[in-house]
Amino acid sequence: MARFNTKSAKALVTSVVKSTGRTAPTQQGGRGHLRDPRSELFLLAVANFVSQQTFYENGGDRDDRFSALVRRLAVEDPEWTAGLLGWLRGDGNMRTASIVGAAEYVKARLDAGATEGPANREVVASVLRRPDEPGELLGYWTATYGRNVPKPVKRGIADAVRRLYGEKALLKYDTASKGYRFGDILNLVHAAPDPDRPWQGDLFRYALDRRHHPDTAMPPASARILAAHRELMAVPVAERRAVVTGAGGAERLASAGMTWEALAGWLQGPMDKAAWEAVIPSMGAMALVRNLRNFDEAGVSDEVAGVVAAKLSDPVQVARSRQFPFRYLAAYQHAPSLRWAYPLEQALGHSLGNVPALPGRSLILVDRSGSMWSPLSDRSQLNRADAAAVFGTALALRAADADLVEFGTSSAKVRYRKGESVLKVLERFGSLGGTNTTEAVRRFHKNHDRVLIVTDEQATYHHYGDPTEQVPAHVPVYTWNLAGYRVGHGASGTGNRHVFGGLSDAAFRMVALLEAGASSDWPWARK
């Protein structure tokens, strides 16, 4: 006879981001909660653009904390750390942090003489997903640890080179601006061609000739794209614009692997309407999003704009581009023409495909305090406050019944209607000063089935305690940490208190699993 595993029994649900029980002040003087090293590294990694200043932490200190955590866990927990790094570059789509992490992983394990766990070579190869990244990793290693590159790093890079190097990669990424050219990397790591890619041997030889004998280097006969590119480069400057505007100009640019970045230099003149319209058909979705303002300023026709719009709003293209949802918000805010508004709204919706339709009543709180307004990176036009608002609004619009609240020093409800544009709702959010999270929870929590808080967690002191303590223990509280600071605003990892990290929507799918009684796991372990 069953005594314990009955219908009335509920599975113990656990969360992977766990507090240690120790406390420390938040940056606003509230009582914060420290996390175990894996949890701290995960939250930092998914929000870490490397060398980027945040409101409360300078880039150097942040990088040092990241590197120290990777080095520690590479020795103490190599399986977990290797899984994090591979996932971070893959589904997490964080390039620089994963490359730095892989280098620090190998260095720590070599210094410690550690041999158990994933091979160093495999970890290096796992984070190199784009043809310029072998050079990035070498650049980081030699700048940090000198020119004596150990064998596991060389072998991991060689594995990646065989997978990544092709004709288009050579044209786009093997440029004079790089410290390590393709030929330098091939020499350093002694990468042999992939036997299943018979053309690669000729390509490797050409990359070496391009580096060491640029005046006489000739592309191999089998390399059609390189040959077409060479022919294009031989066209006299005075005749180049006629090539672009003439019949078949767009096809000729595409067959020669001409990117939009290279076209202006080749033309040696402005990127006018004709130039953009010739190269747009071969541009990827990410490049299109970045250049909407340029298209408008050049006067690109509505017909060509329709082609751009169709590509922007195509769910397959959105998935393939793997852009963060906030990229579409940045494009919407900075593109002058309204003709891009609806395609960007559609693209944003596709990129938020994991946001669940929550049943019951939900309280969704979006942090609009001063610390959330620092840019996501030195090159970003967007801040964490708006990124938080994107996710909070998407949750509210899809939920059965939700109260959407913005908070800072004060707090207030944000109006919205079902079926309304996410981008339009965002225009109603403001800037609200401090981070009185506890007061916002106390003011607006009224018998909700769950509470979701999108924040950097740096809550101010409140005499009633931390924000999560204001919610009854049987009501789940989900915190999305967008900054990766060391101290969190509440305990997590036990009961109904859960913390997720990052600026993508991948964690949102965990809400339904947790509420169904399934314990969460690290993203790379859920495959």
UniProtKB/TrEMBL annotation:
<dbReference type="Pfam" id="PF05731">
    <property type="entry name" value="TROVE"/>
</dbReference>
<feature type="domain" description="TROVE">
    <location>
        <begin position="24"/>
        <end position="360"/>
    </location>
</feature>
<dbReference type="InterPro" id="IPR040322">
    <property type="entry name" value="TROVE2"/>
</dbReference>
<dbReference type="InterPro" id="IPR008858">
    <property type="entry name" value="TROVE_dom"/>
</dbReference>
<comment type="similarity">
    <text>Belongs to the Ro 60 kDa family.</text>
</comment>
<protein>
    <submittedName>
        <fullName>TROVE domain-containing protein</fullName>
    </submittedName>
</protein>
<dbReference type="InterPro" id="IPR037214">
    <property type="entry name" value="TROVE_dom_sf"/>
</dbReference>
<keyword id="KW-0687">Ribonucleoprotein</keyword>
<dbReference type="InterPro" id="IPR036465">
    <property type="entry name" value="vWFA_dom_sf"/>
</dbReference>
<keyword id="KW-0694">RNA-binding</keyword>
<keyword id="KW-0963">Cytoplasm</keyword>
<keyword id="KW-0479">Metal-binding</keyword>
